Every structure is written in C-alpha cells, then in structure tokens.
Amino acid sequence: MRHQLLALLLFALGLATAPARAAKPIKLALIEGLSGPFGNAGEAVYRNLIWAVERVNARGGVALPGGARPLQLLRYDSKGGAEESLALLRSAIDQGAGFVLQGNSSATAAALIEALNKHNEREPQHRALLLNYSAVDPALTNERCSFWHFRFDAHADMRLAALTDQLREDTGVKKIYLIGQDYSFGQHVLRRGREMIAAKRPDIAIVGDELHPVGRVKDFLPYVTKIKASGAQAVLTGNWGNDLTLLIKAARDIGLEARFYTFYGNGLGVPAALGEAGIDRVLAVAEWHPNVGTASSDRFYAAFRERFPRPEDDYVHARMQAMVEVLAAAIERARSDEATAVARAMEGLTYDGRSLGGVHQGVMRAADHQFIQPLYVSVMKKAGTPGARFDNEGSGYGFRTLRFVAANQAAQPHHCRMQRY
Predict the structure, then answer these.
(1) Same-domain status, 245 and 387
(2) Cβ burial 187-220 (10 Å sphere, 16+ → b, else e)
(3) How high is the pLDDT of residue 268?
(4) pLDDT (tens digit, 9 = 90+) per residue, 214-261?
(5) What is the mean pLDDT of residues 374-388?
(6) Is 13 part of any domain?
(7) Per residue in 295-314, pLDDT tens?
(8) What are 83-135's pLDDT values in tens digits?
(9) Does 149 share its domain with 174?
(10) What family is this protein classified in (predicted)?
(11) Which residues on adjacent β-strands are paired with residue 403?
C-alpha cells in the first residue's frame, strides 16, 4: 500500500512539474511576391506583419475560451504571379491557415477572392478569409465584393479624392500627365483620375495618359522624355515598387521639373532617388506617416525603428498593424478562430487604436468590408525642417502633412451586394 501511495505521489508531482503543452498557433499565411521585380515591396510588407504578430504574441497572444493562443505568420513567395498565388493558397489552407494576407496586386487579390469563394462553398469545414492590406482596385469591395474578403487599405478612389483635392489648390498647375501600370489598378487610377481632375480643375489640360507594362520596364527615360516634352507641370501616378522608383530616377536624370502626385512616393527608395530635386515636388497619400507629429505617433515609429534599425528597412504602415490587431480582436469577439465566425465578428468592428498606443483608428464597414480610416496627404521636405522631424530610409528627406482627411470624409459610397453566411 505504501508503495502504491508513493507511486501515485510521484505521478502527481510529475504532472505538476511537466512543461505545459504549447498552445496551438493561429496560422496566418502571407502570399506575396518576396522575390522578383517587386521583391523589396514584399519583404517590406513582411517586416510590418511579423512586427504586428510579435506584438500580439508579446502580450500573451489571442484570448480564447480554451486559453490564449499565439499567432504564427507563414511566408509564401508568389514571385508576383497570380497563378503561383493560387497554388500557394491551396498549400496554405492544407497547412491549416485560416487567414490569408495579400495586397501587392489587385489582379492577384481578385483571383484569390474568386478562389476562396469557390473553396469556402465547397469545403465549409476548412474555410479561410483574405485580409488585404494594399490591393486598392475599388471593384474588390464593389462589384467583386465577397464575404470572405476584407480590405484594410483606402481604395484608389479614396486616395485619388484626397490627392485631387490637394491638386485643386495647386493653382500653378495648368498641364498634367497621367501615367500608370497596365493592369486593373493602374487602368482604374488613370480613368478615375481623369474624371476627378475634370470635375475639380476643368482648367487643367491633361497632356498625356499612358500605361506601361508592370514590373518589366528597366529604363523609364523614354516615358519621362515624353512627359517633359508635353510641358506637364505635374504628374499623377499610382505606380508602386520599382516602377515608381525607376520613374522618379528617370525624372531626376532628365531634369524634369514637375510635381509628382503619387500614391506611394514616400518610401522604397523614392526620396533618396530624387534628393534635393524632390523637395516640395513629391506628394504622397497614406493612412499615416512618420511625421504626423503626435507623441503616440513618435513612440510608434521609434518602436518600429528599434525593431528594424537598418535605414533600408524603414517602411512602416499603420494599416498593416491595424489589420493584425483587428483580426485578433475579431477572433476574441467570435470566441473562435473559425473563418465564418471571425468574418461575422469583424463586420462593423471599431478599432480604437489602443493596442497601437492610439496611433491609428478605424472601422470595418460591414456593408462592403472596406476599412474606413483617416488619410494624410504629405509633401517631401528636408528632414529637420518644420513638420518633417524624421527622414525616410536614411535619405535625409521626410514628408510634412499638407492635408488631413478625417475617416468620415475619406469614406466613399459603394455598390456591394454580397452574399452573407
């Protein structure tokens, strides 16, 4: 009897001292071009997302009834191709990912949405959501909207509205040139840009309207030569990644003295490419930028730079951080990581920004799954001048706010008619 009691005691002690079983992670699958012509943009996104995941996990993970669970970010390199992305989607779901993250191509996002619509109908026990951080073709939350897709970036019409409101006040511009990438997003930017300029500044002559191949132009000098010859005093472009950096470099090399109204001109090499020539001439629009100027913004930016101290890694976006925070909040609200339950919980969810130190707020509009958030239009300045305390990517040049657009003003009408589950 004594031996039996001793054995039971030793068994109980063993249970008490054994390490706790690690909680099953909630898997997030990043499907993005991490190599190829836009590999630098994909890696910049990865840095943002891994930092967001690390912050959630540092505070204990996502609280669920069975205990807190960590987030796990899986990397899948699509090389920028839609077909490769679709193959990787299958792999991600097979590995248990219920949340797919993608954004650096509206064409790829459209393909993933369509694939998820079919997959989630066919395999309801393995459903997944697409969380989109930068695919901004408005069709994705309008005629192509889906219950399984949530967009966290301001779409192209929101960004264009902010830029063209600023253009309306730029009375020195009488001629403008439109140039963009030849796919759904770039085509839309030029079409809607033309319409908005005509409505807000009918006195401006559009002296060029041109599309170029995506990620295949190595020398933009022929394009910039045409822009210079047109006499344009401003250029409007939605170009991103190397297609924007190389366009800007060519403009510098040829001495093009025009203002650039851009979606993404405040990162990925653009400030360094232009240098002094870009001061007061490159404008960008975003949901946040490092020189917002509040104490919470300064702390947020300092924390990112501490995590990624190399100047070339200086690319941080509040919307990507908010996306992961909203996902975590929706999982907790749903008390489940099942995709359908999380989608329902995410609809209408208001993010107050507290988990980001108050740096960014927004609401996920239930009707079309478009995140409604503020926007800033900013202009390039020499770092250290008023309103431009921080530079970008160690270039010595930063951006100062020209225009703040509140979330309710940035919102645009929609015509989404989605099927709900």
Answers:
(1) yes
(2) bbbbebbeebbeeebeebebbbeeebebbebeeb
(3) 86
(4) 999 999 999 999 999 999 999 999 999 899 999 999 999 999 999 999
(5) 97
(6) no
(7) 999 999 999 999 999 999 99
(8) 999 999 999 999 999 999 999 999 999 999 999 999 999 999 999 999 999 99
(9) no
(10) Belongs to the leucine-binding protein family.
(11) 377
- Which two three-digit tokens encode residue 2? 């004594």
49 domain-assigned: yes
Planar angle of CA 219, 223, 227, nearest 5 degrees: 140
Same domain, 147 and 162: no
The angle at the Cα of 132, spanning 80 to 123, to the nearest 5 degrees, equals 90
Name the one residue in this structure whose structure tokens are 């140039």.
179
Torsion angles phi and psi, residue 98, rounded to 5? -100, -5
Tokens 């390490």, residue? 19
* Rounded distance between C-alpha atoms, residue 386 and residue 411, angstroms: 30
- The three-point CA angle 164-170-175 to 5° equals 80
Domain assignment present for residue 246? The answer is yes
Mean pLDDT of the chain: 94
Which residues span the domain enclosing 242? 157-286+374-409
Instruction: Report the alpha-carbon distance of residue 225 to residue 219 in Å, rounded.
Output: 11
Place of tokens 């990865």: 46
Give the number of other Cβ atoms within 10 Å of residue 59's Cβ: 11
- The single-letter code of the amino acid at 25 is P
